[in-house]
Specification:
The structure is a single chain. By secondary structure, this protein is of the alpha+beta class. 36% of the residues lie in helices and 13% in strands. The protein is built from three helices and four strands, in the order E-E-H-E-H-E-H. A two-stranded antiparallel sheet has the order 1-2. It has a two-stranded parallel sheet with strand order 3-4. The protein is flat. The model has no long low-confidence stretch (mean pLDDT 88).
Amino acid sequence: MYTSGSTGRPKGVVVTHEGLANLAVEERVRFGVSSGSRVSQVSSPSFDAVVYEWLMAFSVGARLVVAPPGVFGGVGLVELWEAEGCRIVL
C-alpha cells in the first residue's frame, strides 16, 4: 500500500491486518451500515484510506458505489450519489 503522509511523496508502507475486524464492527455501529446500505468509494485503491470504505461495505455485504474516472467531486459526484442512493460517504 502507498501513502504520502506529510511529505506529499508516495511511499510504500506495510500495514498489519490486526484490528481490521474491530474496525469493521465500529464502522457498522457508528455509521449504521447494513447489507442494504450504499457506501461511496472516492479514495484511490492505492491510497490507504480506501480500506475504511472497503471494510464498511464488504463486511456487511453493502453495495460499494465507485466514482467513475473523471468524477472527483462537485455536482458530478453528488449526482452519482443521488442516482445510486448512496447515503454513506467518508
